[in-house]
Amino acid sequence: MWKMKNMPKINEKKYQEIILYLAEKLGGKIKGKKKLAKLLYFVDFDFFEKFEKSLTGDTYKALPMGPFPVTMEKVLADMTKERKIVVKFEKERADYNPTEIYLAKEKISGSFTEEEKQILDRVILKYGHLSGKQLEDLSHAEAPYIGTAPNQEIAYELAFYRGANSD
Questions:
Q1: CB 66 within 8 A of CB 140
Q2: Average pLDDT, integer, range 101-129
Q3: Region 73-87 average pLDDT
Q4: Which residues constitute the domain of residue 19?
Q5: Fewer beta carbons within 10 Å, N or C terminal of the chain?
Q6: Domain count, the chain
Protein backbone atom coordinates (compact mmCIF):
# COMPACT_ATOMS: atom_id res chain seq x y z
CA MET A 1 0.00 0.00 0.00
CA TRP A 2 1.35 3.40 -0.95
CA LYS A 3 1.81 6.00 1.71
CA MET A 4 1.26 9.56 0.62
CA LYS A 5 4.50 11.47 0.55
CA ASN A 6 4.49 15.02 1.84
CA MET A 7 0.73 14.98 2.45
CA PRO A 8 -0.23 18.47 3.57
CA LYS A 9 -1.93 19.05 6.88
CA ILE A 10 -5.56 19.95 6.57
CA ASN A 11 -6.03 23.66 6.15
CA GLU A 12 -9.52 24.00 7.65
CA LYS A 13 -9.97 27.55 6.36
CA LYS A 14 -9.23 26.38 2.80
CA TYR A 15 -11.48 23.32 3.31
CA GLN A 16 -14.33 25.61 4.41
CA GLU A 17 -13.72 27.92 1.45
CA ILE A 18 -13.99 24.95 -0.92
CA ILE A 19 -17.33 23.91 0.59
CA LEU A 20 -18.62 27.50 0.42
CA TYR A 21 -17.41 27.83 -3.18
CA LEU A 22 -19.17 24.60 -4.19
CA ALA A 23 -22.38 25.71 -2.46
CA GLU A 24 -22.21 29.19 -3.99
CA LYS A 25 -21.77 27.81 -7.50
CA LEU A 26 -24.61 25.30 -6.96
CA GLY A 27 -27.20 27.98 -6.15
CA GLY A 28 -26.26 28.59 -2.52
CA LYS A 29 -26.70 25.02 -1.31
CA ILE A 30 -25.45 21.47 -1.56
CA LYS A 31 -28.16 18.84 -1.36
CA GLY A 32 -26.99 15.85 0.64
CA LYS A 33 -23.99 14.65 2.62
CA LYS A 34 -23.26 12.01 -0.01
CA LYS A 35 -23.19 14.63 -2.78
CA LEU A 36 -20.85 16.89 -0.82
CA ALA A 37 -18.54 13.97 0.02
CA LYS A 38 -18.33 12.90 -3.63
CA LEU A 39 -17.79 16.46 -4.91
CA LEU A 40 -14.89 16.82 -2.46
CA TYR A 41 -13.53 13.47 -3.64
CA PHE A 42 -13.62 14.58 -7.28
CA VAL A 43 -12.04 17.93 -6.38
CA ASP A 44 -9.20 16.29 -4.44
CA PHE A 45 -8.51 13.40 -6.81
CA ASP A 46 -8.80 15.51 -9.98
CA PHE A 47 -6.43 18.06 -8.42
CA PHE A 48 -4.03 15.32 -7.33
CA GLU A 49 -4.08 13.73 -10.77
CA LYS A 50 -3.07 17.02 -12.37
CA PHE A 51 -0.86 18.66 -9.71
CA GLU A 52 0.20 15.76 -7.42
CA LYS A 53 -1.29 17.27 -4.29
CA SER A 54 -4.66 17.32 -2.56
CA LEU A 55 -6.69 20.50 -2.28
CA THR A 56 -8.32 19.81 1.10
CA GLY A 57 -5.54 17.63 2.54
CA ASP A 58 -8.21 15.20 3.74
CA THR A 59 -7.95 11.41 3.81
CA TYR A 60 -10.64 9.35 2.07
CA LYS A 61 -11.99 5.98 3.18
CA ALA A 62 -13.57 3.43 0.84
CA LEU A 63 -17.01 3.21 2.48
CA PRO A 64 -19.99 1.26 1.07
CA MET A 65 -21.48 4.44 -0.48
CA GLY A 66 -18.14 5.40 -2.02
CA PRO A 67 -15.13 7.53 -1.07
CA PHE A 68 -15.72 9.55 2.09
CA PRO A 69 -13.50 12.37 3.43
CA VAL A 70 -12.79 11.55 7.08
CA THR A 71 -12.59 15.19 8.28
CA MET A 72 -15.63 16.52 6.41
CA GLU A 73 -18.11 16.11 9.27
CA LYS A 74 -15.82 17.96 11.72
CA VAL A 75 -15.35 20.79 9.20
CA LEU A 76 -19.13 20.98 8.67
CA ALA A 77 -19.73 21.03 12.44
CA ASP A 78 -17.25 23.91 12.81
CA MET A 79 -18.86 25.78 9.90
CA THR A 80 -22.30 25.33 11.49
CA LYS A 81 -21.02 26.57 14.85
CA GLU A 82 -19.42 29.58 13.13
CA ARG A 83 -22.69 30.18 11.21
CA LYS A 84 -20.99 29.87 7.84
CA ILE A 85 -23.54 27.24 6.83
CA VAL A 86 -26.96 26.17 8.03
CA VAL A 87 -28.03 22.53 7.82
CA LYS A 88 -31.67 21.88 6.94
CA PHE A 89 -33.33 18.50 6.68
CA GLU A 90 -35.67 17.73 3.81
CA LYS A 91 -37.91 14.67 3.76
CA GLU A 92 -38.02 13.57 0.13
CA ARG A 93 -39.62 10.15 0.44
CA ALA A 94 -41.36 8.42 3.31
CA ASP A 95 -39.04 5.39 3.16
CA TYR A 96 -35.83 7.49 3.13
CA ASN A 97 -33.97 9.34 5.86
CA PRO A 98 -34.25 13.12 5.50
CA THR A 99 -31.64 14.67 3.21
CA GLU A 100 -29.19 17.13 4.76
CA ILE A 101 -29.14 20.39 2.83
CA TYR A 102 -26.10 22.63 3.39
CA LEU A 103 -27.00 26.29 2.90
CA ALA A 104 -24.11 28.71 2.55
CA LYS A 105 -24.56 31.68 4.90
CA GLU A 106 -21.24 33.31 4.16
CA LYS A 107 -19.62 34.36 0.92
CA ILE A 108 -16.20 32.96 0.17
CA SER A 109 -13.55 35.33 1.41
CA GLY A 110 -10.37 33.59 0.36
CA SER A 111 -8.95 33.44 -3.08
CA PHE A 112 -8.07 30.37 -5.06
CA THR A 113 -5.14 29.98 -7.39
CA GLU A 114 -5.95 29.72 -11.08
CA GLU A 115 -5.25 25.96 -10.92
CA GLU A 116 -7.52 25.48 -7.89
CA LYS A 117 -10.33 27.48 -9.49
CA GLN A 118 -9.93 25.54 -12.75
CA ILE A 119 -10.43 22.19 -10.96
CA LEU A 120 -13.28 23.47 -8.75
CA ASP A 121 -15.13 24.90 -11.75
CA ARG A 122 -14.52 21.73 -13.77
CA VAL A 123 -15.93 19.52 -10.98
CA ILE A 124 -18.97 21.80 -10.63
CA LEU A 125 -19.58 21.74 -14.38
CA LYS A 126 -19.04 17.99 -14.74
CA TYR A 127 -20.66 16.71 -11.54
CA GLY A 128 -22.62 19.53 -9.88
CA HIS A 129 -25.93 18.68 -11.56
CA LEU A 130 -25.78 15.01 -10.49
CA SER A 131 -27.44 13.51 -7.42
CA GLY A 132 -25.55 11.91 -4.56
CA LYS A 133 -26.58 8.48 -5.85
CA GLN A 134 -25.32 9.24 -9.37
CA LEU A 135 -22.02 10.48 -7.93
CA GLU A 136 -21.81 7.35 -5.75
CA ASP A 137 -22.20 5.17 -8.85
CA LEU A 138 -19.53 7.14 -10.73
CA SER A 139 -17.06 6.96 -7.82
CA HIS A 140 -17.65 3.20 -7.47
CA ALA A 141 -16.49 2.76 -11.07
CA GLU A 142 -13.18 4.55 -10.51
CA ALA A 143 -9.80 2.92 -9.88
CA PRO A 144 -9.20 4.56 -6.47
CA TYR A 145 -12.38 3.00 -5.04
CA ILE A 146 -12.11 -0.31 -6.91
CA GLY A 147 -8.45 -0.70 -5.91
CA THR A 148 -9.05 -0.14 -2.18
CA ALA A 149 -10.28 -2.70 0.34
CA PRO A 150 -13.56 -1.78 2.08
CA ASN A 151 -13.19 0.75 4.92
CA GLN A 152 -9.51 1.34 4.13
CA GLU A 153 -7.75 4.58 3.23
CA ILE A 154 -7.76 5.35 -0.49
CA ALA A 155 -4.27 6.12 -1.80
CA TYR A 156 -4.21 9.39 -3.73
CA GLU A 157 -1.73 7.84 -6.17
CA LEU A 158 -4.57 5.69 -7.52
CA ALA A 159 -5.86 8.92 -9.12
CA PHE A 160 -3.34 8.32 -11.90
CA TYR A 161 -5.37 5.28 -13.03
CA ARG A 162 -8.62 7.21 -13.48
CA GLY A 163 -8.08 9.18 -16.69
CA ALA A 164 -10.23 12.03 -15.28
CA ASN A 165 -8.29 14.79 -16.98
CA SER A 166 -8.30 13.21 -20.39
CA ASP A 167 -11.53 14.92 -21.43
A1: yes
A2: 93
A3: 96
A4: 12-160
A5: C
A6: 1
